[in-house]
Write a structure and sequence with these properties.
single chain; alpha+beta; 4-stranded antiparallel β-sheet; 2 helices; globular
Length: 93
């Protein structure tokens, strides 16, 4: 699994046989923020564009963008998600 970072946000990337392209999602936030691309360049552009869009949409005081500090709970959650994906790959699609 590959990861990318932009403006303090991290994304996990995997190849989707079903979609026939690379698919990514921003981790460590509760909102669902996903993107895809056929090439590495498209993937980087889609990720950066999605993070920028997410931050722009969430600029209102009522809906601030989420950004975790990467503390223990965030690291634990990421580790549990990775373990779950390895144990149950058919359920993580």
């Amino acid at each position: 699994m590959k990861t990318m970072m932009h403006r303090g946000y991290t994304a996990e990337i995997h190849y989707s046989e079903e979609d026939g392209c690379f698919v990514g999602h921003v981790i460590d936030i509760e909102d669902i923020v996903g993107f895809h691309g056929d090439t590495d360049e498209e993937l980087h552009a889609a990720f950066e564009g999605m993070v920028d869009f997410y931050i722009e949409v969430c600029k209102t005081p009522e809906n601030p963008p989420q950004k975790h500090s990467g503390g223990l709970l965030s690291r634990l959650r990421a580790a549990l998600q990775q373990t779950f994906r390895k144990q149950f790959p058919w359920r993580s699609k």
